[in-house]
Design a protein that fits this description.
Blueprint (H helix, E strand, L loop, with lengths): L12 E3 L32 H9 L7 E2 L20 H9 L20 E2 L4 E4 L2 E5 L10 E3 L9 E7 L2 E5 L4 E3 L4 E7 L2 E3 L16 E3 L5 E5 L2 E5 L5 E2 L4 E5 L2 E12 L4 E5 L2 E11 L7 H5 L26
Parallel strand pairs: 1-2, 1-4, 3-6, 4-7, 5-8, 6-9, 7-10, 8-11, 9-12, 10-13, 11-14, 12-15, 13-16, 14-17, 15-17, 16-18, 17-19
Length: 316
């Protein structure tokens, strides 16, 4: 089994295209005050080893990626017995042209993949892809773990103009340690996959927001070709989603479980089978909360005019 690992533990992580100057804008909303590496001189890694060293050291960093960094095959391989979940066996029986996902149980869970353990972080203008998409526990693209071995909440994280595709597990996940002040903006989450837990070419494991102190906002994002957990919200997390576009969800978008809190404003859902999946406990304060807000009418966002995912960044 190959494990591709992106460990984001630096003060900042950036990428830019071509010769355009760094232009990060200002972190909005819950992530206000996030500065990343601040005025630190940018560094330009040229090898995987150099990139990993920059990400792991304790210095404030502005890390600029000017090429593709392919970790596949570099973190070692192992051969072991896995298990084939019922969903995959059912997919094989369907013989409908789609492939399911297998499972390999790793020691230590997913704490070793996609890990992110720092405050005041900006991740901008990168594409994370090809992270063991054939395995259910193949790795999270961005896993916000918390500090002190997952015991202390992180603060101020801004994920902006990022594209994520072909991932084994969650595209973005927060640990039970929580994150205070997370903004995900102008990103594309592309669920089109050859390996699907729901056997339909759509990715199931999209977002997972947990933690008793987690506060997250989703603003101006494009989420498409998923089949569930778009997002899943629980553990007393508070999620505010405004002006996002969900397209082609074959299952359910919002999965709000006990103690999860979600406010939706001005979002547009198209070709979505089920808008929300919820348990009875999640409905306790719905009417009380809704009475305080007057959301705007949703309008369909144009994916041609919006600058989703990786691209030239605005200076505004």
């Amino acid at each position: 089994m190959q494990i591709f690992r992106v460990v984001i533990v630096a003060i900042a992580a950036f990428a830019m295209q071509g010769s355009h100057a760094l232009s990060t804008g200002i972190a909005p909303g819950l992530a206000a005050g996030t500065t990343g590496g601040g005025n630190a001189n940018p560094v330009y890694p040229t090898s995987l080893a150099e990139l990993k060293n920059y990400l792991k050291d304790s210095q404030p960093r502005v890390i600029v990626l000017r090429t593709t960094f392919d970790f596949r095959g570099t973190e070692g391989t192992t051969t072991e017995n896995g298990c084939r979940p019922k969903s995959n066996r059912d997919c094989l029986a369907k013989n409908n042209g789609h492939k399911g996902q297998d499972v390999i149980l790793q020691s230590g869970g997913m704490a070793n993949t996609g890990g992110h353990r720092a405050d005041n972080v900006i991740i901008q203008n990168v594409h994370i892809t090809q992270l063991n998409p054939h395995l259910i526990w193949g790795g999270d693209a961005i896993y916000i773990q918390g500090l002190n071995s997952g015991k202390t909440a992180m603060q101020r994280v801004w994920i902006d103009h990022v594209k994520i595709s072909n991932i084994g597990r969650q595209m973005v996940a927060t640990n039970t340690a929580s994150v205070k002040g997370l903004i995900i903006s102008n990103c594309e989450f592309d669920g089109q996959t050859q390996y699907s837990a729901t056997c339909d070419g759509n990715h199931y494991w999209t977002f997972l927001f947990l933690g008793t102190q987690t506060q997250a906002s989703l603003v101006n994002n494009f989420v498409h070709h998923t089949s569930g957990r778009s997002p899943k919200v629980g553990g007393s997390s508070v999620v505010h989603a405004a002006n996002n576009y969900w397209y082609s969800n074959s299952g359910f978008s919002y999965d709000v479980v006990e103690n999860g809190n979600v406010l939706l404003e001005g979002n547009y859902f198209e070709s979505t089978t089920t808008l929300r999946r919820r348990d009875s406990a999640a409905l306790t304060n719905t009417k009380k909360t809704a009475s305080y807000y007057h959301p705007t009418s949703p309008q369909k966002l144009s994916t041609n005019s919006q600058n989703y995912g990786v691209g030239i960044l605005s200076s505004k």
